[in-house]
Amino acid sequence: MTDRPARAWSEWLRWGALGVAVVVLTIFLVVQGRTIDVSYGQSPSSSDPVPEGDAGELSDATVPSVEEMTRMVADDQIVRLPGSVAHIDEDRVRAEIGGTDSRVLIAPPGLDEDERGRVRDVENATVRVIGTEVTGGFFQVVPNDFDGWREVFGTGDVTSLVTRLLRELRDEENEDGEDGEDGEDGDGIAWREPTAEELGPVTADLRETGLHTAEGSTMDSLPEATATAFPDGDALYAVFPQQEWGQPVPEYGPALAAEFPGRPIVVMYGSWVEYHGPDQEEFAQVVAAGLYGQLTERLSRYDYPQHNVLHAYLNRVTDVRYAGLFDRPLPYQPFDPLRVTLPALPWIFAACVLVFLGLSVRSVLRPVTRPRKYQRGHSAARLAGLTALAIEVSALTGRDGNASLTRGLTALEGARKALDDKLPDQHVQTLLTQAEAELDDTARAVGRTDYRPNVYLQGRLA
Amino acid sequence: MHWLIWIAGTIVLVAAGVGATLLPQRRARALRRRTAWSTARTEIARATVSRDATPVRVEEAERLLARAELIAADRGGPDAAATTAEYARRADRLWREASGD
After folding, report:
1. CB A43 within 8 A of CB A325
2. DSSP-assigned states of every residue in A21-88
């Protein structure tokens, strides 16, 4: 009786351990399905840098039929379809073409799959320019430095890309395998100081709303990513359309930086975004290289609105901000107990398994239904009393009492064996009751009521 | 290495559960069997005493007791023991009736 609470307690512990083990195992299995999202400090930039689908990358521009384009290309070495944004220095390209029969076809950006297929089907065009994507033969030429990107995305100038491709194709034809003149990537943009008349409205707008959208730009409002990219909210945005080709470009960045010292300034020419202001050396290049290195292909083939390009750029800024490169303090990160607990899960599981195993072994070795001591003592006392009675009565019996007395002794012997075998107490008591009935018969046969078992045993106890 | 813990742990859990269920079950069955045979043996012994105390022969009782002893000689499960005990009890009753008890 005394070990009852301890027993219940260990049973609770045993099944509790099993329950915890199962829960932990379930968590482990569920966690296997979680995707790993690696981001230092959980950057809140949206995971799709340029929203797909309705990102507006397809323009209204279209191209004529294949036959018509083939005829146009046959008529003229350099064909520029209406709606095109790419420009080439025709003199330089013609000089590069020289005596060969190379032809250049320039198509507008943002064509859909079908329209691009039509442009590709114009077989007499050596070089095809879709948007600012330059392809020809097995080659595609992309800018790979800041000057190149600025030139292509800021002014649509693909002259150096086209000439490089022509040179590459010609080298391939000659099969001399030399491509020595690599890396001559154009001269970059020709800059000029913005005039006071140009700068005036820009600074006025920036002072007033923080956003200047020049005539012709495809931006009306700032993307939401501004909030995370420049959380201080003091960033200024000056957005200009793609700059006119062949003209020097007014360099607003340094001028605005001088006008608004200490404030982040984002200047956008067409699809080219640049940053001026604090920490310019630290991250302007990282962000631009990341963005244009990854998205050049899409940006040049499609006609993304400036809003979306800026959105992608600002997301990139956010990522850099959260990349932990510049010792910036991170915003508060809520504590995720699951992530902290995960490494400990196997050990918790193992501990639970061991507890369950140990307690199971214990419960098997010491069964719950083991006979209670006081009852065994009770049975043994009853057995002893009845045996003593049987011995006393045996002296008195004649022939008549013999059979029932012997049967009683037989039952007593069975009860003793059962007690020795640790058989259930109930069984022992049944046998003892049988013996008692036989002895009762014996006592009545002998005619001695004081030897009736209940009387005799009571007398013994008293 | 950690995934080994999961597999081994699951196996141990299942084994411990099965063991902890089966072992007591088997033990209880063995106990039930021994108890039943204990009863049966006592009944046979009582019937034997009654037979010795009866002056006349009771053929049916002797047949019953012989059958009980035959089953007991084969050993068997609790059911066989219960049958044995029942035969012995009936034989015992017949002898007692014969001896006018």
Report:
1. no
2. HHHHHHHHHHHHTSPP---TT---S-S-SS--SSS--S-S-----HHHHHHHHHH-SEEE-TT---B-
**What is the rounded CA–CA span in Å between residue A382 and residue A326?**
90
| Domains of chain A by residue range | 4-35+337-365, 66-174, 191-322, 373-461
Task: Kindly state whether B27 is in contact with chain A, defined as any CB-CB distance less than 8 angstroms.
Answer: yes
Dihedral angle at the C-alpha atoms of A427, A432, A434, A440, nearest 10 degrees? -170
Each domain of chain B, given as residue ranges in start order, spans: 2-98
Does B93 contact A at CB distance below 8 Å?
no
Average pLDDT of each block of 10 consecutive residues along chain A (462 residues)?
65 90 88 66 59 64 85 87 86 84 87 84 87 86 85 87 85 58 58 86 88 84 82 86 85 88 89 87 84 86 86 86 67 71 85 91 70 66 87 74 81 89 85 88 80 78 57
**Which tokens is A42 given?**
């959980």
Query: What CATH number has the domain spanning A191-322?
Result: 3.10.310.50
Contact B6 A28 (CB under 8 A): yes
In the DSSP assignment, the letter for residue A157 is B
Do B35 and A361 lie within an 8 Å CB cutoff?
no
Distance from CA of A362 to the nearest CA of B (A): 9
Give pTM, 2 decimals.
0.52
B101: contact with A, CB 8 A cutoff: yes
Measure the CA–CA gap between A167 and A160, rounded to whole angstroms.
10
CB pairs under 8 A between A and B: 90
